[in-house]
Amino acid sequence: MSEIRAWKYQATGNDFVMTHDPEDRRVLSAGEVQALCDRRFGIGADGSIRVTRGSDGRPFMDYRNADGSLAETCGNGLRCVALLLRDVGDTVEPSFDVATRAGARRVEIAFDGRVRVDMGEPNFTKAAIPMRGPAWETSLHEPLDLGGGLVVTASAVSMGNPHFVLFVEDDPERFHVAHIGAVLERDDRFPEGTNVEFAQITDDGIVARVWERGSGETMACGSGACAILVAANEAGLTGSRSSVRFPGGRLEVERLETGSVLLTGPASRVFETTIDLDALMEASEA
Fold it and tell me: Would you state the pLDDT for residue 1?
């Protein structure tokens, strides 16, 4: 029997199975992550986060998508990491750094229960995203033919992970996100795949849906919200601050004069449990 202690947290409906492994003893395999994230046979989640510590003692977010693939960072996941570390008594500070594969990110637990994360600076070069083409080129606010006479405006942005933001004129609810997102996620232009956002600019902020690389459509995406705001700001469609409303709720995004992007929104613990991984793996393979 291989029991582990696990938590489920959510941030605007973006949910994660989380484990606390400060001594770096229990790395989860891709298959174990898939089993944990399975919504019928496992706990069910958009991804798995193992919170450990690096050699410098700093918390590290080991994030995997629901399909078990590694991911560089996750804005909503970082906000959940902040709450988990507070809840297990691993920190008493309201603000601290969390290391990710995309670099360190500052998280802050506010008095109103919301959690803020400094997502760092965006990058638009094809080398950074990554996207095929000359390394120094960008792909911002360009027409994209989706077929059937449907043309949208698209921007590619890196927030430490790749995003392809589609600006649409109609409500994103009218778009077949599961079809279009799945195709663009594995588009040849993106050698490591990409997250795909569908965003509409309105008088009351930005309305969006998202197809996440390795997870499918999710209720929200923190780094995606940042990518949308930055792309809209670059195109002159909005100011440096806006709300981004996903099906799972509203996130506040601000692009500072220093270049960094702040992401703020609610997050909470759903439950805590223990689970037998061996039994779970057997059930998932049956």
Answer: 54
